[in-house]
Specification:
- By secondary structure, this protein is mainly beta.
- It has a single domain, classed as Luciferase, Domain 3 (Luciferase, domain 3), CATH 2.30.38.
- It is built from 2 helices and 8 strands, in the order βαβββαββββ.
- The longest helix has 7 residues.
- The chain is globular.
């Protein structure tokens, strides 16, 4: 994804707290999806996915990774979250226990 995917309105920015990421930006959609490609409703944890013109075209010379990241027509972030009742995305965890540090993949 390029640049912003979720945001808070200016009047909400100073009131936010915790691991909330906001609502979908104007240029893309954000959703929560289970492993079978079903979009989930409020208060259900799943993978945070996006679609819109700011989604990458794919991984360089890696068709398998591109296919996995674009499953069901959405860009898969590897982040787990859920929508709360007022629809801000709440980040919960990573789908895999791996982070990038200095360009290297590191398992927790």
């Amino acid at each position: 994804m390029y640049s912003i995917t979720t945001m808070f309105k200016p009047e909400e920015q100073l009131r936010r707290f915790g691991p909330y990421w906001g609502v979908s930006a104007y240029v893309n959609e954000a959703a929560i999806m289970d492993d079978e490609g079903n979009l989930l409703g409020n208060e259900r944890i799943g993978e945070i996915v996006h679609r819109g013109p700011n989604v990458m075209l794919g991984y360089y010379k890696d068709e398998d990774a591109t296919r996995r990241s674009q499953a069901f027509g959405w860009h898969h972030t590897g982040d787990l979250g859920m929508f709360r009742l007022r629809r801000p995305v709440l980040f919960v965890d990573r789908k895999k226990d791996m982070i990038k540090s200095g360009g290297e993949n590191v398992r927790r």
